[in-house]
Write a structure and sequence with these properties.
The protein is an all-alpha fold. The chain is 88% helix and 0% strand. It comes from Salinibacillus xinjiangensis.
Length: 153
């Protein structure tokens, strides 16, 4: 009985030590994270590049919305083209969505309040043309305001 208790105690002690060492390795900062702290200039340059890419992405989304608006104006009964432009708009937004959210959560939420209903409406079998026009206008305005905000900073 004593041998069993001794063996069990030894096993538990080894497991506890192993868990302690394993969790201690997670708390040790890596060399990569130390380099990032010591080089703030490279982060700023990267941030400027990201802003430029984000602005280009916003322009692409605005262009997608304008193309959707043109189709809605020219041929509101062409559901296939409206559906296709809705899918393209969604794809273009997906490219920049995370960047927008990380940069300005409040603006992100504001944009999506009209953008997601616009995408959903454009993908319907029988989209409401007046609703599409209104949502497209609202979303374009919000995206333009956001683009101007990040351009000036």
């Amino acid at each position: 009985m004593n041998k069993l208790l001794y063996s069990l105690g030894t096993i538990l002690l080894v497991i506890a030590a192993w868990i302690g060492f394993a969790s201690n390795e997670e708390n040790i900062p890596s060399i990569d994270s130390q380099e990032q702290v010591n080089e703030p200039e490279s982060i700023e340059v990267h941030s400027d590049q990201e802003n430029t890419e984000l602005i280009e992405g916003i322009d692409t989304v605005i262009t997608s919305i304008e193309e959707l608006q043109n189709i809605v104006e020219a041929s509101p009964s062409d559901v296939n083209q409206i559906n296709e432009k809705g899918k393209v708009l969604e794809t273009n937004w997906d490219v920049i969505e995370k960047q927008v959210e990380e940069l300005d959560k409040e603006a992100y939420v504001n944009i999506e309040k009209s953008l997601y209903p616009l995408i959903a409406e454009a993908k319907k079998d029988n989209p409401n043309v007046e609703n599409l026009k209104s949502l497209a206008s609202d979303t374009t305005e919000k995206l333009t305001d956001f683009k101007n905000e990040i351009s000036s900073s």
